[in-house]
Amino acid sequence: MMHGGPAGGRGGGPGRPGGPMGAMMPGDKARDFRGTMGKLVAYLGEYKLLIVVVFLFAIASTAANIAGPKILGNATTKLFEGVMAQLSGTGGIDFDYIGNIILMTLGLYLVSTLFGYTQGWIMANISTNIAYRFRRDISEKMNRMPLRYFDGTTHGEVLSRITNDVDTVNQTLSQSMTQIITSLVTVVGVLGMMLSISWQMTLVALTILPLSMIVVMLIVKQSQKYFKQQQEYIGHVNGHVEEMYSGHIVMKAFNGEEESIQKFDGSNDKLYDVAWKSQFFSGLMMPIMTFIGNLGYVAVAILGGYLAIRGTITVGDIQAFIQYVRSFTQPITQLANISNVLQQTAAAAERVFEFLNEAEEISETATPIKVDEVEGHVEFQDVHFGYREDKIIINDFSAEAEPGHKIAIVGPTGAGKTTMVKLLMRFYDVNSGKILIDGHEIRDFTRFDLRKLFGMVLQDTWLYNGSIMENIRYGRPTATDEEVYAAARMAHVDHFVHTLPDGYNMVLNEETTNISQGQMQLLTIARAFLADPKILILDEATSSVDTRTEILIQRAMDNLMKNRTSFVIAHRLSTIRDADLILVMNHGDIVEQGTHEELLAKGGFYAELHNSQFEVAAG
Q: CA dihedral in degrees (364, 365, 367, 369; nearest 10)?
């Protein structure tokens, strides 16, 4: 029933660099800053009214803060005049006026604080909602992505989109957006107030700005270089620790402790070197800026005293002016850093939007079929497939599996045995030809309905951090406890579960190291029993288990295959002697097909494989 052509090997493209877990580094820039920020603004569209309110509250809060020193200066002037009048005997201190000024100032600062708190609360809510939407959209997108994408992308790269990049955008929205508006309003407002008091003193105060900006630029340039290197070496150290921790048994078995320590010390020494330099240069910023600011205060105080003696300005104006000088340099420094923050934000948002714009799986059919009862008749008709369109690895492949038949796929490591599995499950779509189930093309099913027809037990067992009961029930979440117990008995799981602490309620740890490899395999078989599919895909590898457990696994698999169409990826040819059809693969080609006896009689590649395994077993 079959004429062969090449069949597939595992495909995929090169991994994408992700840095240390794909983390954003200082200095990262978006390729399309304007376009990305436009998309981010559009993403913020439904919050535009709230954002306007935030900006109004930020302006009001800043304006109230700016007005405070000027009004408080009037109280200082009135107090000074009252003291001088007392000394000259011509009057006294007007405490009522001063009290009213102080109450007014306190009221302004209270309003400023209230507005600042309100705008911060609203912006935190908006940024958290945006982060939630980003993560939800990324999660939903991942479920629509073709397997091809994940074959060519590192796990850390995908993970960084949903963690680091989204966190970067979240922080910018919650902190930097309002900081931009408050810094701008503060700079403009404070400058206006300073000019209204004295243009001469304002000119002196502004002379320190060029010096401040030069110092900031020099320090940022140096510290940014070392911060970037710090992120890189943190990645090296973390990667080495993770590698040594996950493989510590192998490392100890080969006496690799000394080499591991030397490698760690090398990376750690480099990390120490760049880390202290980055912290040193960052730590220079405040002392130097404070020193330059103090120079400005000295100049302003001297000039202010001179102008006060001449009667050009009042003492209260000098006090207010010094307060304004103190609040003038900080927002300028913040604005200088905003550019770098926005570049990093755009780079993070760009990576998120790139992921959300990635090509998705071929759309589902608009008129999917629903099948009440499946017999399990599977047919490949003239199938052509390649992981890349320019490299077809399955050519004109046709085969048929009758309901209840056992189809074995054999071949050396790397022959491409998993390709047929991926095509059956529609992890990949064929380039041409058809795969039929009970006469219906698999593309006429929804992917959900198609995959419900299959049960899978693979060599790489997948169990999650939950109880044994929950892991078995994953095969059919609506199953009752009794149905779970029945599936466990069929899979020879029940007998060993009762020897475990807490039995079916025992929680598997994250690395699944509190049960054996063979027990893990039996649990996945129990899960398949519970799902009760008509078509099975089995990887019967049992090389890492003892003989008794291997017999149990084989019995459980034999029970599972009864009255079901089964595709078995075979590693030991002795286990598939009774297969109804054997597909023999080599270098991506299906080179032979037939029953065990037919293939041995041919004396071809299958016979060589069989004889070599027999010789190894005999030896």
A: -80
136-185, pLDDT tens digit by residue?
888 888 888 777 777 767 666 677 777 778 887 888 777 777 777 788 88
d(CA 378, CA 384): 17
β-strands 432-437, 378-385: how paired? antiparallel
Of 570, 556, 560, nearest in space to 454 by CA: 560
Report CA dihedral (419, 424, 426, 428) to the nearest 10 degrees: 20
Q: Is 265 helix (H, G, I), strand (E, B) or coil?
A: helix
pLDDT in tens, 527-564: 888 988 889 888 766 656 667 777 888 888 888 888 88
Six-digit token string for 92: 């006294």
Torsion of CA 201, 206, 208, 214, to 10 degrees: 180
- Cα separation, 50 vs 492, whole angstroms: 60
Sheet with 440-441, edge to edge strand ranges: 394-401, 378-385, 432-437, 440-441
pTM recorded for the entire structure: 0.60
| Number of helical (H) and strand (E) elements in the chain, helices listed first | 21, 10
Taking the C-alpha atoms of residue 468 and residue 472, their distance in angstroms, rounded to an integer, is 6
CB 107 within 8 A of CB 25: no
* pLDDT at site 545: 67
Confidence of residue 28 (pLDDT cuts 50, 70, 90): low
For residues 23 and 163, the answer to whether their CB atoms sit within 8 Å is: no
The sign of the CA dihedral 183, 186, 189, 194 is negative
As given in the structure block, the two tokens for residue 149 are 């994408």
Helix axes 315-356, 257-309, angle to 10 degrees: 150
Indicate the DSSP class of residue 578. T
Query: CA 151 to CA 319: how far, in whole Å?
Result: 66
Class of domain 20-356: mainly alpha
State pLDDT tens for residues 180-224: 778 888 888 888 888 888 888 888 888 877 877 787 778 777 777
- Could you give the CA distance from residue 166 to residue 351 in angstroms, rounded to a whole number? 9
Between CA 506 and CA 125 the distance in angstroms is 40
Q: Concatenate the DSSP letters of all residues of 337-384 into one string.
A: HHHHHHHHHHHHHHHHHHHHTS--PPPPPSS----SS----EEEEEEE
Give the count of alpha carbons within 13 A of 499, CB side only. 8
Domain ranges of the chain: 20-356
Q: Give Cα 405 to chain centroid, integer Å.
A: 43
